[in-house]
Every structure is written in structure tokens, then in C-alpha cells.
Amino acid sequence: MNNKEDSFSDFLKTESFFLLIKPEDNIYSNTSIRNSFFEELESLVKLGLRNIEISWSNNENWSDFVSDIKIKYPRINLGSASIVNKQSIEDSLKIGLNFSMMKRYQ
Questions:
Q1: How far is C-alpha 102 from the geometric centre of its chain's CA atoms?
Q2: pTM of the model
Q3: Residue % of the chain over a pLDDT of 70
């Protein structure tokens, strides 16, 4: 396992890597699931993860969840994904995210 962690950590130091997180709604209200998420995220950050993109959700607790990530990991480039409407843009700006991504429609 350590070889895999070392390899991943080396990769993160030399390559741009964005982790896209698409949380299920229970992460916003279930403290146990949320704590488990932060434990796993902590492991990835220690390995060198620097870029995280979180899918926007219309859940009333999305902003608090993403704000918690921003506070706990101020050095992470944190952005929102799946920007689909004015509310999603406003939420992302309010938190002060580094970037936002919108799905391209054809």
C-alpha cells in the first residue's frame, strides 16, 4: 500500500490532477458520513492533493459543506462543478471559490 501512496504522491507533485467530488445528499446532514469524508480527504491532502472540484447541489447545506473544506484546507484550489443556474453562481462567489465549471450544452 505504501508503494501506491508514494507513487500517487509523486504523481501529484509533477502533474495537474483535479479530484471531482459528487457528494450524495446524506453528506450534508449526516455527521458520521461527513467526518468520514474529511478523514479521507485529509489523507489525500497529506499525499499532495491540491485541486478539488465539488459538484454544486441545490441542497441548502451545500455552501456550509464547501465552506468547511475551504476553511480546513486553505491551500487547496477549490472550485465548483455543474454550475447550472444563477443560484449556483451566487453560491460559488459567496464562498470565494477559486474556479467554477459549467457543463457545456450543445
A1: 15
A2: 0.81
A3: 83
